[in-house]
Design brief:
signal; 14 helices; 2 domains; metal-binding; Thiamine pyrimidine synthase; five-stranded mixed β-sheet; transferase activity; D-Maltodextrin-Binding Protein, domain 2; NMT1/THI5
């Protein structure tokens, strides 16, 4: 009896060890870009509908504090994947952080000048004498002069005020400045609630680089290839499912997952509406969600170099890979995950 009990105990111990290893392997810790907003809806919807779980994944989502922070923390190995600005990721890679994009969702530049509809401004040439605010250290800053010069102007032709990100919205919505540089899909729906706003996009003036997507370290990519493939593909499919007319369902999922954030459903819907217009580029038109194009990355590297943001520059293919987008799985999820 004692021998049988010992054998049984040993078997159970080994089984538990194997189970724990499997759980560790299939658990993915994901750091998001910011506090909850529209670009995070697909993650929470995929959790709610069990799409990750169906693929054997235990996904742990953690809100972020900006793309720079997320890139650094994931690059240090504290998380398996990050969701952030892929331009920020590329800059970090050029400076020695071994990270690479594995899926691109918002493939156009999200940055622009949000300007009051009552200002009469429709392009950079209309900015003479206007008061604008920006945040030093944000991704918009290195490109301000090039954007302004597209209208034949210089900084001396307008008034630029540097404020921290937390105060930018207050200054703009109070009417003390005419416009604010920031992420259009994030900020414009918030601004619109108090001041009718439109956006002049940086990308319309040759400032092209990718916005939000997934990335991981080279080491994690090598160690968790199958899990990353499933996670990236399910998330891409969730994005497409939402854009296929299920925006409200997605909004409900993130509001249920993050009740403490006191999110506004209409703001989230408006954020998704703006993000929809930034999903594809000419090089990715008609391609599955998540797929990135070498031509887009070549333009991005050139733009970031012109902004004097890059360290060691590599060929475009060093910054991204499409091997983790399973087109069949993306379509399955986009069609409802059945």
């Amino acid at each position: 009896m004692r021998a049988s009990a010992f054998v049984f105990s040993a078997v159970m111990t080994v089984t538990a060890m194997i189970s724990n290893v499997a759980d560790a392997t299939d658990t993915l810790r994901v750091r998001l870009d910011w506090s909850p907003w529209g670009d995070q809806v697909p993650f929470h919807l995929a959790v709610k509908k069990g799409w990750y779980a169906k693929q054997g994944l235990n996904v742990q989502l953690e809100d972020g504090n900006g793309s720079v922070s997320t890139v650094q923390i994931v690059g240090n190995g504290d998380y398996d994947l990050g969701h952030a600005s892929l331009a920020t990721m590329a800059i970090a890679r050029s400076k020695g952080l071994q990270v690479k994009a594995v899926a691109g969702f918002i493939r156009q530049n999200d940055i622009g000048l949000m300007i009051g509809k009552d200002t009469g401004v429709n392009s950079p040439k209309d900015l003479k004498g206007k008061k604008l605010t920006f945040t030093a250290g944000s991704l918009e800053t290195p490109f301000l002069d090039r954007f302004i010069s597209a209208g034949g102007l210089t900084r001396d032709d307008l008034e630029l005020t540097n404020v921290d990100a937390a105060n930018k919205g207050t200054l703009y919505m109070s009417g003390r400045v005419d416009g604010a540089f920031s992420s259009a899909p994030f900020m414009q729906p918030i601004f619109d609630r108090q001041r009718p706003t439109k956006t002049i996009k940086f990308s319309d003036y040759g400032l092209e680089f990718p916005s939000f997507g997934l990335f991981a370290t080279e080491a994690t990519i090598a160690a968790k290839r199958d899990q990353i493939r499933k996670f990236a593909s399910v998330t891409a499919g969730a994005w497409q499912y939402i854009l296929n007319g299920h925006e409200a369902e997605g909004v409900q999922a993130i509001m249920e997952a993050r009740p403490q954030a006191k999110l506004d459903a209409q703001v989230l819907l408006d954020q998704i509406k703006i993000l929809r217009g930034l999903v594809s580029t000419p090089a990715t038109a008609g391609k599955p969600m998540g797929i990135m194009a070498e031509a887009d990355w070549a333009k991005a590297i050139d733009t970031l170099q012109q902004g004097k943001l890059m360290g060691h520059v590599e060929a475009p293919g060093a910054y991204y890979t499409n091997e983790f987008i399973d087109e069949k799985l993306v379509k399955e999820i986009a069609d409802g995950g059945n």
